[in-house]
Design goal:
Number of domains: 1
CATH superfamily: SGNH hydrolase
Structural class: alpha/beta
Shape: globular
Largest sheet: 5 strands, parallel
Strand content: 5-15%
CATH architecture: 3-Layer(aba) Sandwich
Strand order of the largest sheet: 4-1-5-6-7
Order of helices and strands: HHEHEEHEEHHHEHEHH
Number of helices: 10
Length: about 300
């Protein structure tokens, strides 16, 4: 099987992005106390919005629910939440409107104001259809060629473009942190990573890629997550490592925290997106992070 040649390139790119940050504001705000009643703004895409995990909230068409981690965190810490996360959001939608089914959604950064004390952000998986290429394109290819490695072959053909996209995710995060702090200089900014979706070994019908394409699919999710971490480090923002916390809870696990192609109707959620257990795990990580006011 051909190996995806992107990994070595990406490691070099990300190594260059993890230099020490010179963002004074972000560094200054790390560990600042978060108190009951503080304004909390949640920014992000569908992995933040948590569609079908409870009652619908947010803008129409965004598939946001009150079972997502922003709502769980706000309830846990008694915060004044403004959750503007929206399914399908890309980095450009931090500054420009989004148009999901249902109408126009304002730029997410409009919610960040001078009195904001906490901002969480998770975005990047939708850049040029990065995640969709796995859960739509590669799934379809796997159905056509289940004994081959069609997604791996496609990724090898597009390795240069994929490298650029991953690089863009990291730089977008860095830029977003700066934009947030311009609007809310006293805010504590926390970047939230993505969970493990595809297992390191094995195969299951809930993730219907060709078996030989599991490594490249997992690698793509992993590199997008590393890019978020690299962007956070470069900007001096805090980072929540959801990848490590969801070890053993991928789509094919005995206790999956991410829904497969056919979500369990008793658990809510929708295909290839988090169940509420994953959102609760993120909440717990944030509570621990925000409760640690010791300087870094």
């Amino acid at each position: 099987m051909n190996r995806w040649p992107l990994l070595a390139t990406l490691l070099l790119v990300l190594a260059g992005l993890t230099a020490c940050s010179d963002d004074v504001n972000a560094s200054k705000n790390r560990g600042a106390p978060i108190e009951a009643g503080d304004k909390y703004v949640a920014l992000g895409d569908s992995y933040t919005a948590g569609g079908y995990l409870g009652d619908q909230t947010g803008a129409e068409g965004c598939l946001q629910s009150d079972g997502n981690y922003p709502h769980l965190l706000a309830k846990e810490l008694d915060l004044d939440l403004d959750d503007v996360s929206c399914g399908g959001a890309r980095a450009i939608n931090l500054e420009k409107p989004q148009f999901p089914t249902g109408g126009r959604v304002p730029p997410q950064l409009d919610a960040v104001t001078k009195d904001t004390r906490l901002v969480t952000l998770s975005i990047g998986g939708n850049e040029s259809g990065l995640f969709a290429s796995i859960v739509v394109k590669c799934v379809n290819l796997g159905g056509e060629d289940p004994t081959g490695s069609p997604c791996t072959d496609l990724a090898a053909q597009r390795s240069a473009k994929l490298s650029q996209l991953i690089d863009k995710v990291a730089s977008d995060i860095e830029d977003a942190v700066g934009d947030i702090l311009d609007r809310a200089p006293e805010a504590r900014v926390v970047i939230v990573g993505y969970p493990q979706v595809i297992p390191a070994t094995g195969w299951c019908p809930a993730m219907p890629l060709a078996p030989a394409d599991y490594p490249v699919g997992r690698e793509l999710f992993s590199e997008v997550t590393r890019a978020l971490e690299a962007g956070a480090e470069k900007a001096g923002a805090e980072y929540i490592d959801v990848w490590s916390a969801t070890e053993g809870h991928d789509i094919c696990a005995k206790d999956p925290w991410v829904a497969g192609a056919s979500p369990d109707p008793k658990r809510g959620g929708f295909a290839f997106h988090p169940y509420i257990e994953e959102q609760q795990a993120v909440t717990d990580l944030l509570v621990k992070q925000l409760g640690d006011t010791a300087p870094d």
